[in-house]
Amino acid sequence: MKTLIFAVISFLLIAFCPRVFGAELSWLTPTDIRFQNIPQRDRIIPLGFSKTGIFSYILQQNSCHSPPENNNKISWVAVNLITDKTLTHIALGNEAPHVSAEDVLRKYHQIIEDHNSQHQIVMTYSQTIATGKSIESKNDKLKIHTKLLKTIEGEDAINPGYKKYISLLSSRTKGTKKLAEIISVYEPLRYWGYFKSPFEERVAILFISGFRGCDAYPQMRINIVGANLIKGFNTKINN
Fold first, then answer.
1. Which end of the chain is more exposed for a tag (fewer CB within 10 A), N or C?
2. What is each CA distance from 170 to 147, 179, 227, in whole angstroms?
3. pTM of the model
């Protein structure tokens, strides 16, 4: 009888236990992101790419609208790396600052899987951020650059001014192309690294900029910029 009960319990656990990503989530490589004046932990948990240039990730970000012990806002985000537009930003919930990446994916696994499926995102289980500015691609070597275009002086804490940057990608064989223009308030723009698509010669580049958040407190904005490593070079760049 005990054997039968044990067998039934084991079957129920296997059949109805929520499926998680990977056997032990050992593939997780969350990227912690900080500004010097923001003590709370912000992070990206990269999820994967589609074959059509879409990148999805979990954003774990400080929220000043929540109690201090429960102030990390968890969101699922998909970005079109061709247009650099956010396709979907889904708020999943709030978690304590020390919550682990594994716990986040376990808790929200079903909605993450559903939204990944809608955008044909494939989980590759091996996404790590490359922090260097050089990219190897099919007998070519490329480099990511940022250049300050202009500085607008601020008047006070409510109108602090800003710096406008241009991001560029230069190829050893094909020239240079403009990727995006990014505005940062309070602090200089920071390059953080890039994620490489396993399906095509395309990367998702991560920049961090500052802006005025709750009660004019400086907060960070995560800027995902897509870059095709083959096409679009030798275009005229207006600085």
1. N
2. 13, 10, 11
3. 0.80
